[in-house]
Amino acid sequence: MLFLNAEQIMRALTFDQVMESVEKALHLYEARQFVMPDRLGVDCGGGNQLLLMPCVADGSIAAKLLTIYPGNRSRNRPMIDGLVMLADQSNGEILALMDAKTITAMRTGAVTGTSVRYLAKEDAHSVGLVGCGTQGYFQLRYACVARKIRRITLFDAAREVILPFVEKLRQALPEVTIEIASSTESLVRASDIVITATTARKPVFPDVPELFKGKHFVAIGSFQPDVREYPDAIFAVVERVWIDIDFAKEESGELLVPLREGRLKEEQLETLGHFILSGRAPERGAYGTTFFKTVGMALFDLTTAQLAYRNATSQGLGVKL
Fold first, then answer.
1. pLDDT at 226 (0 to 100)
2. What's the confidence (pLDDT) of residue 199?
3. In the chain, which residue ranges form alpha helices assigned H by DSSP?
4. What pLDDT score was predicted for residue 53?
5. What is 178-195 written as a DSSP string?
């Protein structure tokens, strides 16, 4: 059994490869070639959760055990921690244990990158991020792979985290101009692509439809039925909303609330995998806006873990246990 820590996983993977593995997962999802029980969530008290995400597909078994402690940001500790197990479906042999923080960050960033690649305008050159945590960092890295980004604009309610985040970004993306926004409204106005990766429970933007015209939006943070990052205004300007899995409309308040209130119709929803397989251009409607909501799925973990294990084995990375 191989153990891969964060550094070894990063050495084993490239951003383009992980985007390919995410697209593979989307195709498997559309073909229904998987066994994937609903995510199991255990309340750990104080708004903290333990999540279990198992999946069987493509000759592999994967299971991710994840803790989510939002208050860890104030303690200077990771909000997300855990392990991913990868096993051989043919004989049940456990092949590897991997750092779940890194697998999660890489595959979630790749989902966003895939949405940018297929839904954002070809000439998009600026991206705004609300939520400057580990997830946010990888969201930006993948956006810069999917489009030729020249400017990044940042906002976080915890202002003290922004400057260290900027320094990390500048080391990785020295050719990109990085700016700090005074408000989420000014961030949207400065950006062709807008990504939210927050722990906010209520919308982080003003409820003004004009603000959401002509851009590509990606919602990452909400995975509970009463949690939203976007206001009602965005649904006044979108013709279609893309999602990673059908369950997103039941799991996330981002979709559940506007569906319940009639601001969004179920026929406006489409999975990203279905859209990619269709080969058509995205419906941007009268206002040129596209919106993608992801809640994640274990299939992403499985295909990314397969890739990490295969590459690490060929490169001699990891520790045998």
1. 82
2. 83
3. 6-12, 15-31, 100-119, 134-146, 162-172, 184-189, 248-251, 253-261, 272-278, 298-315
4. 96
5. EEE-SSHHHHHHT-SEEE
